[in-house]
């Protein structure tokens, strides 16, 4: 009896499998006594820019290294682009990127570096034009300068250009925004957004909440080798309870009095009595009530802004909690 599935079903299954770029279950990785990753679960769908964030030593680079095939997990399962990763140290097909900065030849120019990498990757690699990728990352003007004289941001951009040479299906980047000036950041963000729109998945680490907010639809927060949050940024912001807000009004003294009388609003002690700006701690409904009361009292609200962004507050709360549970 022929047990093979009809062609349409096989094709359907293939697509289902490939729509997941990364699927990690129970990943553990230790270095001697240090447990760098402790039961990591991670799902990254195709075409998603997924941010990894966490305090120093949380395990971000270790996890990115596993995705790039630079190390293997002690236990757990890791599926990349539909294939289960074995014990061999090699980047699965379609995966590229870098951890700890890109590997470049300092004595060669930017263009020569890319030509050398393209030659190393051989004919099978789906290479795209060197000039195109240099243009994508904004390095056309320095294409014939030696990399030795490049700044950190320029090296990062060249590393990204090198990764683009192969039209990756999964791009893995450790702190790609390190050292980037605003123009560099714009180029890098533009490249990553375009890649994702074309179906490439990107997993990147960053310490910068503004980068994550600008780029990522989902983030995973690691603390001491564990996932303390994974999901959309909007859900992360909602995890925040009470935030501190800076308040600038037309009458600070009266405004302080009104704030002190509003239920659920706490005026911070550390703002000077005569300061024009002061800080209140409140949840959103109490803050709304405060604004209404200020306006009713004839006090104009000139500025009202969180002291730290809701994302940063949620990040701090979640990671500090994990640290204290250790
Ligand atoms: N090769 C190694 N040998 C020994 N310990 C290691 C090694 N690599 C990582 N570690 C340890 O594993 C833990 C996780 O390190 P990792 O570099 O993955 O963290 P990270 O989140 O990338 O930190 P950072 O934000 O500082 O880059 C740390 O305690 C680190 O000291």
TrEMBL record:
Q: Which UniProt keywords apply?
A: ATP-binding, Nucleotide-binding, Transport
**Entry keyword Ribosomal protein:** no
The molecular function terms of the Gene Ontology recorded here are: ATP binding
Q: Which InterPro entries match?
A: AAA+_ATPase, ABC_transporter-like_ATP-bd, ABC_transporter-like_CS, P-loop_NTPase
Q: Is the Hydrolase keyword given for this protein?
A: no
Please name the PANTHER family in this protein's record: ABC TRANSPORTER, ATP-BINDING PROTEIN
The ABC transporter domain covers which part of the protein?
22-249
Instruction: Determine the domain of life of the protein's source.
Output: Bacteria
Protein family per UniProt: Belongs to the ABC transporter superfamily.
Task: Name it.
Answer: ABC-2 type transport system ATP-binding protein
PROSITE patterns according to UniProt: ABC_TRANSPORTER_1, ABC_TRANSPORTER_2
